[in-house]
Amino acid sequence: MNKITKKLFSAAVIVCLSISSVAAYAAQITPSSASITLGKNDREISFDIYLETDSAYAGAEFGIKPSQSDVEFKSLVLSDELQNESKVQTIKDGCLYFGFFSNTNKYSTEKKKIATLNYTYSGSGTRTIALVDSKIVTVDETNKTSGDTSSNPFTVSITRQGTSGGSSGGSSSGGSVRKPDVTLPDTSQTYSDRKFTDINGHWAENDIYSGVKNGLFTGISDTIFDPDGTVTRAMAVTVLGRFSKDEIVASNTEFSDVTAEKYYANYVSWGAENGVVKGISETEFAPESAVTREQISAMIVRYLNYKEIPLPTGSEEIKEHSDYEQISDYAKEDMSICYEMGLIKGHDSGLIEPNGNLTRAQLASIMARLSNYSEK
């Protein structure tokens, strides 16, 4: 670990760092929603955290705590822009602490998404999830780090539809919060050389590491890849955009549900402009919707046409799968082409599962096969 990175982490995790000489940083940390109402049978809670500053910065740290322990933390996904940075994440006394750090003030002032937080709650009473601690880290000309803690806290209120609410059990933002001893991540290796703890012995392990090394994928944390996680439309077009090695430039999109601050916004624009992806309507892209096996087949064929890569004749063998007729008419030729290319394969059960949701491991395997095909 280099000296600058060590200093950055020290600035981010030592609560008694003196900031008396640091001017107010005027950082604004906000949730995507200040109030979430759950349906009668809903359990999942998800919201984004955004950061906007007056000056460029090198990193940030956050402490997020629910009002009661029955609101359970499930996962945190840093934005795509931050995936390759040095990161910390730990839970102490029910409080989630996480942060990202660079050795330069590389992050500009505009409002940007930092992470998506996911919790579960099955009770009926009102609960809150609050930002109880934060620090914005900057580096000066002498490589000295400073941490500013003047950002205002926020609270996300959780209520359940059809109930009269009830006590939230007190606010988690009051009183002192004892910060944990954070184990610093290993920054001596590049991100692509790190090992994920959830894919050891996985059938797609080699393809996953190949995809990470080539910059197509990142883990959902430094140590977790989530191979069985569902691929969304946004993820799929992002991976294809990275695979293309095209210069992906900032551009506006006509889709109202793809906003400029999203990590995938420029990739969606690239895909739409080059005929790789289509919206579900003229104004909607549905970026968070799951991608099926037939849909990824259609995207890949459109991508290969855009790149003017010759395509084989579609396979006749695919028709031997018992669920072949379940393939949508628009995707039958595309899926038969991908089957012939060896990108899409049938399962041991004899099914091709055109409407099955694509997993991250499956996409990694498909991209590895596509890379081999493109190099022929």
Topology:
Blueprint: H1 3-13, E1 28-31, E2 35-38, E3 44-52, E4 59-66, E5 72-78, E6 86-92, E7 95-101, E8 112-120, E9 127-139, E10 145-148, E11 155-160, H2 205-213, H3 233-244, H4 265-273, H5 293-306, H6 332-341, H7 360-374
Parallel strand pairs: 2-11
Antiparallel strand pairs: 1-3, 3-8, 4-7, 4-9, 5-8, 6-7, 9-10, 9-11
Helix pairs in contact: 2-7, 3-4, 5-6
Structural commentary:
This protein is an alpha+beta fold. It has helices spanning 3-13, 205-213, 233-244, 265-273, 293-306, 332-341, 360-374; strands spanning 28-31, 35-38, 44-52, 59-66, 72-78, 86-92, 95-101, 112-120, 127-139, 145-148, 155-160. 21% of the residues lie in helices and 21% in strands. Strands 2, 4, 6, 7, 9, 10 and 11 form a 7-stranded mixed β-sheet that branches. It is globular and about 65 Å long. The two termini are 41 Å apart. Residues 1-25 and 168-189 have low confidence and may be disordered.
Summarize it:
Helix content is 21%, strand content 21%. It is built from seven helices and eleven strands. It is globular and about 65 Å long.
For the sheet with most strands, the description reads: 7 strands, mixed
Low-confidence stretches are 1-25, 168-189
User: What structural class do you assign from the helix and strand content?
Assistant: alpha+beta
Radius of gyration: 23 Å
Determine the strand fraction and express it as a percent band: 15-25%
Averaged pLDDT: 83
Total of helices: 7
What's the count of strands?
11
Distance between the termini: 41 Å
Coarse shape: globular
- H/E element string? HEEEEEEEEEEEHHHHHH
DSSP helix fraction: 10-25%
